[in-house]
Design brief:
Elements: E1 12-14, E2 20-22, H1 33-40, H2 58-72, H3 78-85, H4 91-94, H5 99-105, H6 107-123, H7 132-152, H8 158-164, H9 182-202
Antiparallel strand pairs: 1-2
Length: about 220
C-alpha cells in the first residue's frame, strides 16, 4: 500500500543513532553497534513467554551462544567469535520470530534476514557470508542455548526439551540462566563486543571501529 503521497511504503527504520536503515537494501554505513545492542536488549526470546520479572533478551542469548561456541572450539579466532556474537544481530530490526513462524513465513523472511546479516558483518570487518564451519558452530551453540533456555526459562519439561532440542552432552543439568533488565543486557552485549574488538586487534586484525560514514540526510 502506498503512502499518502502515492509513493511506495517506507522500507527504512530510523535508529536512535540517527541512522536510517533500509530494510530491503541495507548499507553497512547505516549500522551502529549501539543500535544493535539497544535493540537486541529489548527483543524478547520465546516471544516473551519466559519466567521472571525481566524478559530474556536476544542480547543475553547472543553472549551465551558465543560463550558456548568457545567451549566447543577454545582456539576459535576472535573475529569468528565476533561473528557468532552477531549471529542474531538482524533481529534488532526484524525481531525474534519463533521457529514455527519462520517456517510459515518462508523465503521472504530469510532473504531480508540474510541481507541485514551481510550488511552487519561487513560493517564490522567480517565477510558478508561467514564460512560454513562458523555458521555450523553457531547453530550448534544456539541449539545448546535453546535447550537450557527452554527448561530453565520457557516452561519446557526436560523430556520435551530432550525431544525437540536434544540433550547436550558434557554439560551440567542447568546453566542457572537469569534474565537481566534491559540496560544490563545492553551493557553486557556492548562489553563483550568491546572485548572481542580488542582481541581482534591484538590478534593482528583490524579492530572493528567506526566507518567513515557519509552525513545523514533528512
Amino acid at each position: 500500500m502506498a503512502d499518502k503521497a502515492g509513493s511506495p511504503p517506507r522500507a527504512w527504520q530510523r535508529m536512535l543513532s540517527g541512522r536510517r536503515l533500509d530494510l530491503l537494501d541495507p548499507s553497512p554505513f547505516d549500522v551502529e553497534i549501539e543500535d544493535i545492542a539497544h535493540g537486541l536488549a529489548r527483543v524478547a526470546r520465546w516471544n516473551g513467554q519466559t519466567r521472571g520479572p525481566n524478559a530474556y533478551s536476544v542480547a543475553e542469548h547472543s553472549v551465551l551462544v558465543e560463550r558456548l561456541a568457545l567451549r566447543f572450539e577454545p582456539g576459535l579466532e576472535p573475529r569468528w567469535r565476533l561473528a557468532i556474537l552477531l549471529h542474531d544481530a538482524p533481529e534488532y530490526v526484524i525481531g525474534d520470530m519463533i521457529s514455527p513462524f519462520k517456517a510459515v513465513m518462508g523465503g521472504a523472511y530469510k532473504e531480508i534476514e540474510a541481507r541485514l546479516a551481510g550488511a552487519i558483518n561487513l560493517r564490522f570487518g567480517l565477510p558478508a557470508v561467514v564460512p560454513a564451519e562458523i555458521h555450523k558452530l553457531a547453530k550448534r551453540a544456539d541449539q545448546v542455548s535453546a535447550y537450557f533456555e527452554a527448561i530453565e526459562l520457557a516452561g519446557f519439561t526436560v523430556a520435551e526439551a530432550n525431544r525437540i532440542f536434544g540433550r547436550p552432552r558434557g554439560f551440567p543439568d542447568r546453566l542457572d540462566l537469569a534474565p537481566s533488565p534491559t540496560d544490563a543486557a545492553e551493557g553486557l552485549f556492548l562489553a563483550r563486543f568491546a572485548e572481542l574488538s580488542q582481541a581482534i586487534a591484538a590478534h593482528g586484525g583490524p579492530q572493528p571501529g567506526r566507518l567513515a560514514q557519509p552525513a545523514q540526510t533528512t
